[in-house]
């Protein structure tokens, strides 16, 4: 391999690396790391949204579970019905 071929090979590899770096948006990531307050703010807002999503999701899931437990109580299954009735009573008292 002579010097020209080696130079073309290196140039091609550098171009390929540049394309990969553009696809990874490495420049945007580096700019974000240079601004700690912006990084903090984005993480804070993301955490708030994740927390709200979990709270809403848990509330909906809990309401569905309590609804089905109330329906099971009306089936009058002897052993399960008493336990579920006590759980539903405790939950309704705490609301």
TrEMBL record:
InterPro entries: DUF5665 (IPR043723). The chain crosses the membrane at residues 40-69. It comes from the Bacteria. Keywords: Membrane, Transmembrane, Transmembrane helix. This is Uncharacterized protein. The lineage of its organism: Bacteria, Bacillati, Bacillota, Clostridia, Thermoanaerobacterales.
């Amino acid at each position: 391999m002579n010097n020209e071929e080696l130079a073309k090979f290196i140039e091609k590899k550098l171009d390929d690396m540049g394309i990969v770096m553009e696809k990874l948006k490495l420049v945007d990531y580096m700019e974000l790391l240079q601004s700690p307050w912006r990084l903090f703010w984005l993480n804070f807002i993301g955490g708030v949204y994740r927390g709200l999503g979990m709270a809403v999701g848990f509330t909906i899931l809990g309401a569905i579970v309590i609804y089905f437990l109330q329906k099971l109580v009306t089936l009058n299954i002897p052993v399960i019905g008493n336990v579920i009735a006590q759980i539903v009573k405790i939950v309704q008292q705490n609301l």
